[in-house]
């Protein structure tokens, strides 16, 4: 099973880098994200970017962006290129194909996120290091890595569900843009509807509360969501239905 999943992951990475677009094109497409989140914003924020526990939230958010950019192609792209039937006719199990597609997107996003955060760390040291070496505290690094993995998986799970039913990559990408906006802004919108006193209490809790407990709760919620979405994707992943579609 693990060997089959890795086979699908490697297939996806190989196609992403060398078939869907040149390696040079992929690298050029990463430059805007690296410049914004690796240079411009860290240079403005300074050492707070490295030292503040709130940066863990940014780690999680950054990991979602690259997933949205490529997960639309997972099955809709295979359908457009007329390779879906060949993939489904292979001896690979349905779970291996599904988890391989998700794993490839998550791995790509995770690596890109670490590249941006490494560049950001270098930027902060240059701009606001004052001769000292600034590093991410272990608590922030570990928490951010875990949160980034979970949010990337959440984005990939939603993307796979959309790509399974989308007729084209463009259609899937458009639907995922709306999903990403909802995931980003819906919680803020809901918070804005709460009474002012409740909002102030939540802010105080975030500032003065146990950040470890808060992030642990967030991780548990994300794990439950990911588990449910992957189960739903497995239930919808039917070889015969996808071929007929």
UniProtKB/TrEMBL annotation:
Its main location: membrane. It comes from the Bacteria. GO terms for cellular component: membrane. It is a multi-pass membrane protein. The keyword Transmembrane helix applies. The keyword Transmembrane helix applies. Residues 60-194 form the ABC-2 type transporter transmembrane domain. PANTHER family: ABC TRANSPORTER PERMEASE (PTHR43471), ABC TRANSPORTER PERMEASE PROTEIN NATB (PTHR43471:SF3). This is ABC-2 type transporter.
